[in-house]
Amino acid sequence: MLKYLIILLLICNSVSALNINEIMYNPIGSSDNYKEFVELYSPDLIDLTGYIISDGDFNDTLKKINNFSSNYMLIVEDNYMLNVPENISLYSAGASIGNGLSDDDIVLLYDKNNSLVDSAQIFSIDDGYSLEFYNGNFYQSLSINGTPGYENDYNEAEVTNYEKIKINEIFPDPYGSDNAEMPDGEFIELYNSGNYDLNLEGLKIKDEANHEIIITNTNTKTTIIESKDYLTVYMNGFSGLLNNNGFEKIKLFYGDELLDEISYFNSEEDLSWSKQESDLWNLRKPTRNKKNEENEPEADSELKINKINIGSDEKAKFGDNLLVSVDLYKGNTTRYAVYLYAEDKNGETISKRTTVHANQKYTDYEFTLPVQIEPNCNAKYSDGTFNITLEGLGEKVTKEIPISGITTSLCEKVKTEKKVEKECKVLVPQAKMENVLNPSTSSITSNIIYESSDIKTQRSALYIFSLIIIMLMMHMVFKKWR
Q1: I need a surface site. Which of 41, 145, 148, 151 has the fewest CB within 10 A?
Q2: Measured between alpha carbons, how far is 430 from 411 in angstroms, rounded to an integer?
Q3: What is the number of H-type helices and E-type strands within the chain?
Q4: Percent helix, strand and coil across the chain, each rounded to 5?
Q5: DSSP 3-state assignment of 128?
Q6: What's 248's domain CATH number?
Q7: Tell me, what CATH number does 349's domain have?
Q8: pLDDT tens digits, residue range 212-234?
Q9: Is the dihedral of CA 293, 296, 302, 306 positive or negative?
């Protein structure tokens, strides 16, 4: 029993040492047929006949083509076209490996008992290069076509090759405080053109006056910059490094080694110095952790009224509160206030003004704003077509809207008596006089007017009081007559 246990342990240890060592899934050329391979490595000699290779969708049982005493084993497609090293064990997966490998597949290796031996997740790399296993992870090979049957050429020296790190964008004059905490405020963006992720912790950025900031996790979201990717280093409250006015030079150091430097002169608020594909530097809209803008930002502001919501009945009345959807683009202007209101064809405002602020230059804004139309209780305005107006940032746009009728709940209709020739003095508290038009001298007609409920209450009280006085006087006269 002990003998069999020892043999079983030896087999398990041997299998566990077998690993996927290299994957070629995207060879050069328009077709991947007969060029893909998966390389395995084991310190021990293993016969892979009957093992299964899979891409997660299709399984292929391995067939031995030849067998040599080699630690490297190559799994290929039938009619494999690339060079095959001598003295290497070669196995066929059939017409293709799985269903043909792609950058979102996972490679799975099973033994004869259908137990998983190893797996590797494929990810996107440059055409013609392979994925090579190194120190627990896969990286893009240094050599085109990879290294099938040989030791992988990825090495630690290349992992620390900081010469691939370059300054890509400088934002010295943001809107608001230059010293704001990340992700606001000033920043410098770096780009990694190399094939490997790098840890930038400890790298230094200096300016012409020798101010210095050290890259740490306190001024970046991460100190790891991935291959072909960007990393933004924020000033995060540090003052003095980026000069807004006049000449400035920014330098990037790895230890005492100068990796890159860039000079600029006279910045503009809300624009960053951005490196273009032509290697020229221009002022562009800032793009943190993204490819830089190629086109010059639009200097002119723009206003647009998208939709006026006038309710389900599609009719607007005087007194309605409308919701208006608008778009704003603020260009190169110091103006910031934008007003929304309604007006008649003569330009007279018939609503209160709604105000919003667009503070940041070269920025798009979206708002849904209210407009309260005047109730028109005095019938000053006739039914007809009016304008909803959006004005600000040196621009003005309008959109027509029909308005008819009033919102009766906002007005009180009072029908007066026929004209009385006698002058009538009404005692109204002085604080309420603004709601009455010349009460002691105005002629009373049979026209319909609109008054507040307070005035109506006062008038009713006066009528009741007068009626009581008249009844008392009649009672006294009648009593005296009797």
Answers
A1: 151
A2: 22
A3: 3, 32
A4: 10, 35, 50
A5: coil
A6: 2.60.40
A7: 2.60.40.10
A8: 999 999 999 999 999 899 999 99
A9: negative
